[in-house]
Amino acid sequence: MDRTFEEWDRRATEAINGAESELKDLWGKARASAEGGTPRGPTETVALEARPEEVRALYARVLAAQCLIDGRLDPREVQYLYVFMSRVGLGSDSREEVRRSLDGVEVGAEDLVRLVEEVVSEVPDNEDEVAVSLIKDMTQVSRADGAVLPPEEESIRAVAEARFGERAERVIELAAKTVEYEEALIKGDVSASELEKSVKDIAAVATAASVPITALFFSGSVVGLSAAGITSGLAALGLGGVLGLSAMVTGIGAVVVLGVAVYAGAKWLLGGKDRELKKQRERMIQEVVKRHQGAIEDLTEDVTGIGLKLAEYVSRSDRNEAELARLNGDLRMFNAALAELQQEKGDLEARSAQHAV
Q1: Higher pLDDT residue, 308 or 252?
Q2: Global pTM value
């Protein structure tokens, strides 16, 4: 048994060292590109937030469908959707498109498989990255209401099997480990040494599944960080990262570095310094709070819009009772989601104040 653990530890260390070497090479290319040098190569990843809005909206509709797979919509799932939509920069029209996809529709696993394939077809340059990213985000939104039910597990498995075949179980395991890792970090439940073990574990599973590590952060971070937020976290520490790859954000002509390193930078992953971990966690929480504030503003705008539509509809003589009930239901659901979002933002601020002490 000891030999088995030693072998896995050796493989994980090799994966980390290999990724670090690759990142240094890619970072050099990134700097050259930012300075007008060699353009983006085929191995680089364009983050979701830099994709066309219709691609980002379609991606969000996959997560909306996952919210409905268990036959019930929870305000905490809507809250997660709004943080996600804020994270990837969806505008008002796209948010309405996602909201309408939540309206009383029965969804099956086959619908999720079809939607995921639609998204993948829109990003032929990063097919594996977007597929793994979707499975990770489907895993997270399924956890938003506190219970992952069998229909949610089945849809995740169906998507993984359709896309990855015999590698499906490894991909599902990788998604779950990444979600649990990020949640533990933001909550402050673990030490730097425990996080180091988690990073090695994630690296080992990613290697076994033949999955590029950038896939885990294609859409940003499940705790609310955007790709740009991940980049700023790296920049704040002056780190290249131990598991990152590069990504060209074409929309603003800048290079974004993605990677687990925002959570496990060399200063405290390799040195095991809990003080550095505490400082970086504080930076992360502040970024997540900003993302929640953006989501609150978006949701407030949309709730106001729903309220105005409802008031206008009530005054009509030819109103349809089913449509009236739908608008009333939307208003209740999105108001509840807004309350959940405000509560979570308050909890994050309290946690930030606690870490600052």
Answers
A1: 308
A2: 0.75
